User: Fold these one by one.
Assistant:
Number 1:
Amino acid sequence: MAAPSTPSPPVTVRVFSQRFSSTPLGARLARHLTLVKLNAWGVPYTATACDAAVIVAELAANAVTHGRVPGRDFELRLSLLHRCVRIEVSDVRGERRPPAPGCLGVPAADDDSGRGLLLVDELADRWAVLNRVPIGKTVRAELDLDGGASAAGPRAWSVRPASTTAANR
């Protein structure tokens, strides 16, 4: 008599990478394509997909506002891993890094900006700011597909020194 086997889910990694103009239109297109791509990958228009769209919108807006260099695009990379959606937004302004997870300040009530990364921090299960090789930075966020990270798991990765982060890209 053979032992019953538990079917394991397929190990498929899907990746979408696209460069966008560093304009508000480019940021809006990145958000829209996130929803389209996730739906095509079988992640329906639910809270997870909406959270991913908000994260992309905020990170793309930051790339357009704070990471813009005339004539240079920003890059969106989406990955559907086994149990999570990974979002990476890269720009070429490595010297203008956002605060790391856990170091975000709360803006004053009358400030016009400063709330985007607070949304990312709240919606993402994990996020980090990484160096981009050869130049720039990448903000990476992950959303777990099974309803959230475990209570014991950290919300941010520990980021290695700049010389070793190239392997993380």
Note: The chain is about 25% helix and 20% strand.
Number 2:
Amino acid sequence: MDRKLERLTRFGAVCGVLFGLSLGVAGTIEAFTGETAATSFIVGLGVAGFGVPALFAFHLRQADASGRFGAVAAAANIIGLGLFAGASFAYNVVLFFVEPAVFETVLDGPSMWAIAGGGAIFIMGTLLFGISMARTGVLPRLAAVGYTITLVLLALLGNLPDSLLSSANHVAACVALIFLSRSVWRAGSTP
């Protein structure tokens, strides 16, 4: 692997760990406290700041084996995660702090359709990319399946009240992301 590509891939692996930790730490805390300003802030920044570089690293690690399907799946997941990250950032870092009436007003218009459409693209992209990762077997299959299930559940559970299920899902997503990132990091150290 070329040195510049290796550094970029390792950067993505570190971002994957940070993305995972932002979900896992917040999920663990929320299991005991419910959603707080601090946990909301951590999730919003983690998803928006670290998710896309992590997905690029996962794709770069398996790109040769995944072919055209893998490239399309990765592109769909990256676009979907970008849209989901924008919604997550807006909800967790901005809307979390406004009055409930303002929150409802914002989501009672075109914003809701944009969020729903972005969520649908995110779910579709996650499913496709998860299938690609599991199919190629370059990255750990169990982590790829965990990634697929937990990230889809993140989108589906996002509109529901916080629960132990959503907290456990955050922690499970953390574990999957860290295992995928570890595999990408270790592959960068091989000649």
Note: The chain has six helices and no strands.
Number 3:
Amino acid sequence: MTEGRETDAEAEFAAEIADDSVSLVYLPQPSDTLAGLRVRQRIKRWGLLLRCVFLVLWVGQWLLGTVNRGSIDAVSTVVFFFVIAVVGGYPRLQAAHVQKLAGWQGEYRTTVTSAGITTSGTHSTLIQKWSVFRGYRETRGHFVLLSRDPGILCVEVLPKHGLSSADGLDRLRALLDRHTTRV
């Protein structure tokens, strides 16, 4: 090939990638992060199980203390309700924390292609190949891709509100189905 000239195969490949890509542009929202964390939690299940066991133990401790004393202690009741609020609201607290980390990046521009997913923010660019992901789950407003590692430490959330065209949703779903599995 001569420099600066494309062969027919290269031009065809470039056209195929352009036709086989979906772009999303969005500002990350706490609801996007929360959707990803909830999907991760449903897949892992250990975190949910541990939170439930922890809550049952706290309820039991509070009830036993109340029965043994014969009356409700104000301090233990306040601590009891505080623990219930923290354990019950933990996913929202975690989503708010992640939002602080992701929000300063500004607008996200994500391109999903046959090669993988490229996400660019104001200060960084992340390129992920399909081999990083074990699969995805579609929610009402998002596509959530889960990493292959045993702890599912990485979650990629593709919000549907970031799609610029109506046919983008079907094309994105087709790309995800082609390169990874639904979980």
Note: Residues 74-103 form the longest helix (30 residues).
